[in-house]
């Protein structure tokens, strides 16, 4: 194709799609089955009784419906991306039993990650390494702009191919809430690269999403690298690319020229209303202590992310001060919400608000754009770097007792990062003893709002009169459990709350018991009856 005039101009930044540009994807024949097996194993921990075949059928039906939805969004002027929980709840698991559906919704991040990693394989396309090296030589930032249901999985794929750290910004639709052809996702990436769309090249592989998004954003040049999607759009598209190449080698040339397996279990149609254990994470499952080395590594990484070549660097010392200020703002946010009356919704802080607005208020517009695009990944990294976690003595025995008695366990946690909570439990070797995680940052509500506990009860099929909530904070855990009607509201010593406050909560009736060891809860699960 004859190059347009704009392609002969050196761009300020190059923005790349992920699949079809950086990577060529191909379907794995047994991928959906493998995801179904993993999900069925998770459901079995909660005694949800859904066979692998039923899970697989639901996933396949949901993927077909989701494909139609995606095509429809490509006709919209400014489509928003579906939240992960809505994708799972309304598409992938909509015809499953209620408890199973709720469990998979709670675990939507992992389910969508598994779908991306197991259903498709990723091969680096020819010319990408050359393009990145050439852009580095010329000081041109390269960003990623991709429709994705799991930006997390895309970051994993990049790391596995040695490409971590090669991009100035990564904008994934599930993390920024916009999906192509919405021009805003390209505008955000351009701003994060320190420029405007008019001075960018945008490289995609589809006409209905990429070409249209590029034209709507007004990018300097729209290019396509041909994939199996390129020549077969779902409907007629009137916009045209400035150039179409067989591989990304053409883009590089243009830049150079421009200067477990699980056995199925029997299905059940009768609703279960049995015992369940709802359990807090921080201070209960895990004890924590500061981890200065991990904190320093995180601060250094974030400083590097905010300091591209050619700009004055943001020092680690300044990042550390901004993190401290943002955390103080978060503490004030929690104090203001904690006193709301019963029935008032209590929302969790949004990662974008935390990093872009609280942490980044004094930073440049470009840096705030980077923070907005990368907020979810930054929060997950921060959650892992905050402290060193250790499993509390007696916790494994409690969880194993629940497993032996077929009592579902659901973690109910106020947290800045549900991903870090799951990572801690995997590191402890107890993830296989936990049915699901209801985390405030993912659900959008935080204790003492009863929403998390009520959802956890629904996941477990738990009868509130036969359920136990184990926490360590009277004002969060015990209040939320009481609002959810849970009979046994147990507080564990040794967490973040002083013994005197725990004992006061017991005397007032807010808590039903105070224990010193998680194993003390085991006899309560055997009876699981209300305490008078």
Automatic annotation (TrEMBL):
Which keywords accompany this UniProt record? Hydrolase
Protein name, as recorded: HAD family hydrolase
A GO CC term attached to the entry: cytosol
Write down the NCBIfam families for this protein, in alphabetical order.
HAD-SF-IA-v1
Q: Does the keyword Hydrolase apply?
A: yes
What is the top-level taxon of the source organism?
A: Bacteria
Gene Ontology MF annotations:
phosphoglycolate phosphatase activity
InterPro entries membership: HAD-like_hydrolase_sf, HAD-like_sf, HAD-SF_hydro_IA, HAD_sf
Transmembrane segments annotated in the record for this chain: none
User: What is any one GO biological process for this UniProt entry?
Assistant: DNA repair
């Amino acid at each position: 194709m004859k190059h347009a005039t704009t392609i002969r101009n050196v761009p300020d930044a190059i923005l790349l799609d992920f699949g079809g540009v950086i990577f060529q994807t191909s379907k794995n024949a047994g991928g959906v089955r493998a995801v179904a097996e993993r999900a069925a194993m998770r459901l079995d921990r909660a005694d949800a009784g859904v066979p692998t075949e039923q899970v697989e059928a639901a996933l396949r039906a949901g993927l077909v419906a989701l494909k139609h939805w995606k095509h429809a969004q490509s006709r919209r002027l400014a489509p928003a991306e579906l939240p992960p929980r809505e994708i799972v709840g309304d598409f992938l698991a909509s015809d499953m039993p209620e408890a199973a559906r709720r469990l998979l919704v709670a675990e939507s991040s992992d389910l969508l990650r598994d779908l991306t990693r197991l259903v498709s394989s990723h091969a680096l396309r020819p010319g990408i390494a050359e393009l990145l090296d050439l852009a580095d030589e010329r000081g041109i930032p390269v960003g990623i702009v991709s429709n994705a249901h799991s930006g997390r999985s895309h970051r994993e794929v990049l790391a596995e191919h040695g490409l971590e750290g090669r991009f100035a910004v990564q904008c994934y639709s599930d993390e920024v809430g916009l999906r192509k052809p919405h021009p805003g996702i390209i505008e955000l990436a351009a701003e994060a690269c320190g420029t405007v769309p008019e001075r960018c090249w945008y490289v995609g592989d589809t006409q209905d999403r990429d070409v249209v998004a590029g034209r709507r954003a007004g990018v300097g040049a729209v290019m396509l690298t041909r994939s199996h999607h390129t020549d077969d759009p779902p409907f007629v598209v009137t916009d045209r690319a400035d150039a179409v190449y067989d591989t990304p080698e053409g883009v590089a040339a243009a830049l150079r020229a421009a200067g477990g397996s699980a056995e199925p279990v029997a299905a059940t149609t009768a609703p279960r209303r049995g015992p369940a254990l709802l359990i807090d994470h921080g201070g209960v499952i895990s004890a924590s202590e500061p981890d200065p080395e991990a904190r320093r590594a995180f601060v250094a990484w974030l400083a590097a992310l905010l300091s591209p070549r050619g700009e004055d660097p943001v020092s680690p010392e300044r990042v550390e001060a901004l993190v401290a200020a943002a955390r103080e703002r978060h503490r004030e946010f929690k104090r203001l919400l904690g006193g709301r009356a019963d029935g008032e919704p209590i929302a969790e802080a949004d990662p974008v608000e935390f990093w872009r607005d609280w942490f980044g208020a004094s930073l440049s517009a470009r840096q705030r754009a980077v923070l907005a695009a990368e907020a979810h990944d930054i929060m997950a990294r921060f959650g892992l770097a905050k402290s060193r976690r250790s499993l509390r003595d007696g916790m494994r025995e409690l969880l194993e007792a629940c497993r032996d008695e077929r009592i579902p366990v659901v973690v109910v946690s106020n947290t800045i990062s549900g991903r870090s909570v799951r990572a801690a439990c995997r590191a402890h070797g107890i993830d296989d003893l936990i049915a699901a995680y209801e985390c405030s940052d993912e659900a959008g509500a935080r204790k003492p709002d009863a929403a998390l506990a009520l959802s956890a009860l629904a996941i477990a099929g738990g009868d509130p009169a036969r359920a136990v909530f184990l926490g360590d904070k009277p004002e969060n855990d015990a209040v939320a459990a009481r609002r959810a009607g849970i009979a046994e509201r147990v507080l564990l010593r040794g967490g973040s709350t002083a013994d005197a406050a725990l004992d006061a909560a017991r005397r007032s009736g807010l808590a039903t018991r105070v224990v010193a060891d998680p194993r003390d809860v085991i006899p309560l699960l055997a009876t699981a009856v209300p305490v008078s």
